[in-house]
């Protein structure tokens, strides 16, 4: 059942190229997106003036990425919120808003409660859900099914990757409907998405390099992930993967925030992982990493092929293929999943069933 892999998590990491491709193909017709199965017409989309993304855990981290991508491409304001906060906050919702609930299981108690809260207020709801017929899928006005297939490992990998794809598809379609991009740009984005599965595959093929580095981190006490913009959102996911399965305390920081407190935690040898996929922010994050280094940090840099000068700063560099920077999360997350996995394995932990955690959190 693990198809020759030692753990479900590694099997599911390897299933990502297919899961991403399947999800993409499910909404692609003749080179354009067709969201009729989802039930969102271009007319429906035209009316949307505000988006709220509500989710828990990794699905919330997808929301953080989606916020950047949707706002940048479609120029629609997006708010991202933890479902457990949203449900009790008595949120003020725009009546032309769309509430998007992201959930692999479709059964997460807080996400379901948030969905009901939105429906009660008469706001249109869309579920991005993996499990067919789950509560969120049944109750949402519209459903965008991710085609990740069953995910067994508690640490999500392929479901996260397919949720990202669904978010990009919505962002691109909204951008077109809202007149923010022309046909040519639209097709270019669609074509770029089609290249992601192969690029993900290539990163996974290089896994031994990450394994070698990760195995040396098994005794780490703390690990910090730093980045800006979309890279900060990736850091949130990398950090959750790490703490969830390797039991190492880790934090994700917006790189510019380090000076406002966190940098005092850096000691001799503390591992700081910088994520740098956004060229406009590259130099800014590099200088934050240099600041960490001068306080004794040991640095890993995750960036795009070509940025080889990162090796002047970091102790260990790992590279991902080039893509449109809006979609870089889909590639950058892979080495971070592998890091979490291999640290957990090096520590001899139960990778697929980490202590105190359940695959789906159906009670508050
Ligand atoms: O089933 P859901 O997507 O609603 O689950 C949300 C979170 O519980 C989930 O993403 C959790 O954070 C994962 N274990 C992270 O790997």
UniProtKB/TrEMBL annotation:
The keyword Lyase does not apply. Keywords: Aminotransferase, Cytoplasm, Glutamine amidotransferase, Repeat, Transferase. Its main location: cytoplasm. Residues 41-180, 213-354 form the SIS domain. The active site is at residue 359. This is Glutamine--fructose-6-phosphate aminotransferase [isomerizing]. Catalyzes the first step in hexosamine metabolism, converting fructose-6P into glucosamine-6P using glutamine as a nitrogen source. Its EC number is 2.6.1.16. It is an enzyme of class 2 (transferase). Homodimer. One of its GO terms (molecular function) is glutamine-fructose-6-phosphate transaminase (isomerizing) activity. It is found in: Cytoplasm. It comes from Blautia stercoris. It catalyses: D-fructose 6-phosphate + L-glutamine = D-glucosamine 6-phosphate + L-glutamate. The keyword Transferase applies.
